[in-house]
Design brief:
With 276 residues, chain A is mainly alpha-helical. Chain A has 13 helices and no strands. In chain A, 50% of the residues are buried. In chain B, helix 6 crosses helix 9 and helix 6 runs antiparallel to helix 10. Chain B is globular and about 70 Å long. The chains are: A mainly alpha (276), B mainly alpha (272). At the A-B interface, helix 1, helix 3, helix 5, helix 6 and helix 7 of A face helix 1, helix 2, helix 3, helix 4 and helix 5 of B.
């Protein structure tokens, strides 16, 4: 096919290759410059904000939003994992759902295409219809449900990609689904399942839209850091104080560290699969 | 494990999967009933007026297609350069920097762009805000595409590269004539996924449009308007949030159509 149509490069092709290499490197440069520009912008904007942001009793300190972020994360993440990982086990073993397993996988993939704001509007309507107060706890539970499809998809990818041969052999030898999960899947993929949980944690920490829509800006005490930044990002007074920029920088570093931890957990399989 | 425990485990796993999948019909039902209540029974005023809805539909499509196309082009190009062309040291450097970009939350993008609008010496015009919002969306999408593309490139059999190199092709030719054709359908799937992602992007765009509004420029997309209109203190009233359902439903139809079309055109798309 395409490979067979190749021949030794001529001079014009070599200069064409150089131009294409320059084009590809320009694409990489755009992304590299973007991250540097954003970080420099946030760091420069927050340079005088740190005393205010780190003042324990200050009106704009970041500790209250960080506490609210931790509260939402520690409430939503276990719930998302507790339902998402068993769901992934169910859709990754054809014996549990039979012929319906393909439809289940398709449904989860389509559910992943639902915009967060749409699901959050539905959650807010459901809460209002049930006369539930818009609290941070209610928002955290809703956020857990909104992140369940992502948790399930990531865990399914881990379980499907780990040790397919071992799984097939165990199944052929008559091992039950429970045995396959306990003895074959989990020992080989627990590290990568942990990485999937960390990736979902970054989504919960960095997500602002769902909580802002579900609580409807009701007075719930302190807002999670992402929601606080979203609410005050277009506010010249708060931006002038630069506290929002300091918060955004803290949030970026937190997510970067979590993503790094997730990548380290994925490292053994990546080394084998992806040497590039 | 006893047979009873075995059955209980399987039943619990099945129940969890059904609970996850059930989110979709529940969301659709809530939005359909709320839309019917708003439109047919006149239970509440539409949160987004009919004529504005058409304009927002157009701007959402414009931002979505521009952001997805430019983001996919840059993300694919950057990944091809990092994985196939760059030296190992440059590869690690690019991977680390783009990893950092991937870690920037949507509010970080929105805040940096809002600062450019809020503190510019001259009031920004509509085209400048449009370009800035498209640029932010493009970079956000490109960082996601870069990660997906790296994953796809790692799955290309090494034999394809070896065969192409053995025939005298240089690294760029190997990339464009041997590697890229083998993942052409995956790139199409990535574009559709990026389009669905761009349609639903609300956080960063709503921050940019809010900042632009303070400088006299009024722009928006369906997702950003739904977020900005819905995130206000409603008290105990249900009508304001129910009135958002028609706009949310249109956005859902657009996003699901993009996902389904992507699956039909290019097989199973990668998770955004």
């Amino acid at each position: 096919m395409a490979v067979s149509a190749m021949h030794a490069p001529r001079t014009t092709e070599r200069s064409g290759s150089r131009r294409l290499a320059a084009l590809l490197s320009a694409c990489a440069a755009v992304l590299c410059v973007s991250v540097v520009a954003i970080i420099v912008c946030l760091a420069a904007a927050s340079i005088y904000a740190w005393p205010n942001a780190l003042h324990w009793y200050g009106p704009h300190n970041v500790f209250q939003p960080i506490w609210a972020t931790l509260y939402v994360t520690f409430l939503a993440l276990p719930l998302a994992a507790l339902i998402g990982i068993p769901a992934a086990i169910a859709v990754s073993d054809a014996r549990i759902f039979g012929s319906a397993v393909t439809r289940m996988r398709t449904a989860i993939a389509i559910l992943g295409g639902f915009p967060t704001v749409v699901s959050a509007v539905a959650a807010a309507i459901a809460l209002a219809a049930l006369h539930q107060q818009a609290t941070l706890t209610a928002a955290a539970i809703a956020v857990a449900f909104l992140n369940m499809p992502l948790m399930t998809a990531l865990a399914t990818a881990v379980l499907a990609g780990g040790t397919p041969d071992l799984r097939e052999v165990a199944t052929a030898l008559g091992a039950s689904p429970t045995y396959v999960v306990r003895r074959v899947l989990l020992p080989g993929s627990s590290m990568r399942l942990g990485a999937a949980v960390l990736i979902v944690a970054t989504q919960i920490i960095g997500g602002a839209a769902a909580i802002a829509l579900i609580t409807g800006w009701a007075p719930v005490g302190s807002w999670p850091l992402a929601v606080d930044i979203w609410a005050h990002g277009a506010d010249t007074y708060r931006f002038g104080e630069s506290v929002t920029a300091a918060g955004a920088l803290i949030l970026t570093i937190a997510i970067w560290l979590l993503q790094g931890a997730a990548m380290l957990r994925q490292a053994p399989s990546h080394d084998a699969q992806e040497s590039r | 494990m006893s047979p009873a425990a075995e059955r209980a485990f399987v039943a619990a796993a099945r129940l969890c999967a059904i609970a996850v999948v059930a989110i979709a019909p529940i969301v659709i039902m809530i939005l359909l009933v709320s839309t019917a209540l708003t439109l047919l029974e006149g239970k509440g005023e539409l949160a987004v007026a009919r004529d504005l809805m058409l304009a927002l539909f157009g701007s959402t499509l414009a931002f979505g297609s521009l952001g997805a196309t430019a983001g996919t082009a840059i993300g694919v190009g950057a990944a091809l350069f990092a994985v196939e062309v760059a030296s190992p040291a440059a590869r690690q450097f690019i991977k680390a920097l783009v990893g950092g970009l991937h870690a920037v939350p949507a509010v970080g993008f929105g805040l940096a762009a809002a600062a450019a609008l809020l503190f510019s010496s001259q009031p920004p015009g509509g085209p400048f805000v449009f370009l800035l919002a498209t640029l932010v969306l493009t970079v956000m999408i490109a960082s996601v595409v870069f990660v997906q593309m790296r994953r796809e490139l790692s799955r290309v059999p090494a034999g394809i590269r070896e065969a192409a190199s053995a025939m005298g092709a240089d690294t760029v030719q190997v990339t464009l004539r041997a590697v890229l054709p083998t993942i052409r359908r995956k790139v199409a799937a990535i574009w559709w996924g990026a389009f669905a992602l761009a349609l639903g992007e609300a956080t960063a765009l709503s921050m940019i449009f809010q900042a632009a509004k303070t400088r006299g420029v009024d722009l928006g997309t369906l997702a950003s308007v739904v977020l900005r209109t819905g995130a206000v203190d409603r008290g105990d009233a249900i009508d304001p949030i129910v009135a958002l359902a028609p706009a949310a439903l249109i956005l859902l139809v657009m996003a699901v159509a993009a996902t389904v079309l992507g699956r039909r055109a290019a097989g199973e798309p990668a998770w955004p």
